[in-house]
Amino acid sequence: MTATFTELTEVDAVVQQLIAEAGPERVWLFEGDMGVGKTTLIKAICRALGVVSVVQSPTFGLVNEYTTQTGDSVYHFDCYRLRNEAEALDIGLDEYLDSGNYCLIEWPERIASLWPAHYYLIDLTVDPDGIRTVKTALS
Predict the structure, then answer these.
(1) What's the rounded mean pLDDT across residues 66-92?
(2) Structural domain of residue 39, as residue ranges?
(3) Distance between CA 79 and CA 87 in Å, rounded?
(4) DSSP notation for the chain
């Protein structure tokens, strides 16, 4: 899938397309440069999933756990500050990935050898005119 948006009001429609395309896949990997809007997109995804917790970047804590209206957990990771993949294993990343809950991971390239066999890859870019492009792939 490839989708574009320029206004934040358009992001919810893109999110609905992402959710439909991902189907039952719960591990979502978000690639893109700093400031491209990964966290903004994840906030919209969490809204669509019914998260009732405050959604913010887990930059310093590495992982935030959010709760949905139905009591399910959604995990949001930011791997930017990881020094190595061992740090991800130390927080139990493999257990999160095996939980069956949504795992939304920013900067996944920092833990590439730990990716599960199946995941939903979302690549977000922005051009000089502010048009954001979302490209996806299911693995």
Answers:
(1) 95
(2) 2-138
(3) 10
(4) -EEEESSGGGHHHHHHHHHHHHTT--EEEEE--TTSSHHHHHHHHHHHTTB-SPP---TTTSEEEEEBTTS-EEEEEE-TT-SSHHHHHHTTHHHHHTSSSEEEEESGGGGGGG--SS-EEEEEEE-TT--EEEEEEE-
- pLDDT digits 0-9 by tens, 116-137: 999 999 999 999 999 999 999 9
Give residue-wise pLDDT tens across range 85-98: 999 999 999 999 99
Q: Considering its fold, how many domains does the chain have in total?
A: 1
Here the CATH number for the domain that contains residue 72 is 3.40.50.300
